[in-house]
Amino acid sequence: MRREVIGVLLGLGLAGCGVVYTAPSVRDGAPLGQASGTEYDVEVIRLTEETARAANLTPYVPPRLPLAYQPGAASKIASGAGLAPAALAPLPEPTELRATRPGLIPDRLPPAGQPEPYRIGPADVVLLSVSTPASVSDLPGLISAQAKRQGYVVQDDGAIAIPDVGRVQIGGMTIQDAEAELFRALVAAGIDPSFSLEIAEFNSQRISVGGEVGAPQLVPITLKPLYLHEALQSAGGLTVADPSVARIQLFRGGEAFQIGVERFLSDPAARRILLRDGDSVFVLNAYREDAAARYFEQQLALRQEQAQTTAYALQSANLASQAVSNELARIDSEREAFQQRLALGAVEQHYAYVTGEVRRAQRVALPFERTANLADVLFGKDVAGMDLQSADMGEIYVIRAASDPRLMGKLTAWHLDAENAVNLAAATRFEMHPNDVVFVAQHPITAWNRVISQVLPQFFLQAAAFAATN
Predict the structure, then answer these.
(1) Pairing state of beta strands 437-442 and 351-356?
(2) What is the pLDDT of residues 248-289, one digit of tens each?
(3) Per-residue burial over 112-133, b = 16 or more CB atoms within 10 Å of its CB, e = otherwise
């Protein structure tokens, strides 16, 4: 009977307290237009070193401080080094784009192959030398021409046409196989088969070499196997200025391979890559020194022009002690005005927000002229910090809205699992953006304690009322 009474009282207590405490949490949302009960599309991403670097790719430029706060401004004025120069027009954009040096060039070499005998193909020119019977009276003619030599072009079907013999198929054969085939054809035609066969022109098998080489061209494959360094040498050699940022690309049968020029120059095995018919070799310079030099020359010329204009303005200025004092006073006035405007909220400043299981939910100002990371927001000296008694270290989130208006309602929540303290290293890599919300979830036991703290007062009140009526 006592158990039934307690059950009834507990049920009345839960009903009397209304909605029992619900712990806030971060959950994945459905795609926009398909969400149920929410208007946000939330994607939860685990915060690691890799995802932190990916998140930092989104551009963010912190606001700059006024010129009065620039390093050495007051000391330059006090020493009479220069008053504030006259306002100058902004520098024009350079005509050359700024070049960025690439990182490590990953190598991908083709499978190793073994040299194969050369096979005669269409457009090759073969030279057939047939010995001519001679007598003593023919000796002067033999001195001038010991043999009759005739060249034949291999046709599209792989055959050559020999007078009095006909068409002989030699396409796709090695020289030894072609000699055997010609021997049979000459014997069948009743001709003395005393001959020799050689290839005069190699036209059927070629590779192309282009890019940063001395003379881009088609390089034929001959009886001797053709290796990568020989093909590049035939095309005039490499002309790259900086081997560390150049690579050699090899295109073969729909696949692309590449090797850094530095490795090509230092690794003998890389130079002896066997090439095949139809290969394309292209030398690419990923960073053009001449373009970079022109860019910096333009920048230097623009800066020199600005420096000359500034020098003219400074020469015309009054460097009297009173002017120096006035300028120092102006700097102090600008700083004071900036501080007042900052305190009144009239200066654009970016903020992040910290809430959840923290000692105090607060707005954290992001610094000027540099970026803050997640560790700064969680552990900074002006931050109240997490409530370690109630916070769930495994459930820390950075919630960020999409900056693209077309993705309105799209949220990304980066999840930091700090139960493993090693993961805090990722917090020092993750850059904070304006309006980021840092949320620290409560520990499950904290949620249970809060539910109990709501239920028990109602339970005792209901018990007292039940006892008074019975």
Answers:
(1) parallel
(2) 989 998 888 989 888 888 888 888 999 999 899 999 876 655
(3) eeeeeebbbbeebbbebebeee
